[in-house]
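Tutorial, part two.
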Amino acid sequence: MKKSNKILQKSIAVLYVTVMLFSCSNDTKEVRDFLVSKNLPIGIAKNAYHVYKDSGRITSKLITPLLYDFSNRNEHPYNEFPKGIKIINFEGKDSVTITGNYALSYNKTLVSEIEGNVIVINHTDKSRLETEQLFWDQKTKYFFSEKAFTLTTLKDTIYGVGFESKEDLSKHLAKKTTGRLETSEEFKDE
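Running the prediction step on this input gives:
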């Protein structure tokens, strides 16, 4: 009697769970709308390492401890990197590394905003840009900032407020420069 009672209880439990699983009828649109209304991301990635390729050749790498995917937004889909980001872009043998403490990347416009201890290094010509906020237009491969910056090259260091350049730090426009050293001590020995 006890054995058949246990079997009956287990059968009822299995039936109950099965009914619950099949009774959910949320479609993808309803779930997306719910996530948007609660301002929740559609996906979360921890310790993400993403490699971008074009025609079988690696063009860039993205490394981040935390990524929130808000691509479910109709008007302004974006990705958020609340714990920082590191991007390595490869152009032939040349490479440029971009790091920052926080970033937003907008999917439709391909413009990214990187904030907090932003550092851009061109490893080929050994130039380095430091600022607290940087906007990056990935379509035009262009950086711009209205914040204070330091640009260090093999020849000199430029300080200023407001900066524009190609993403490899060439052909830059430094606004409101506040100082210039003729020789950079950082790169003298290299």
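Residues 43 and 97 are 26 Å apart (CA to CA). In part three we will examine how such features are distributed along the chain.
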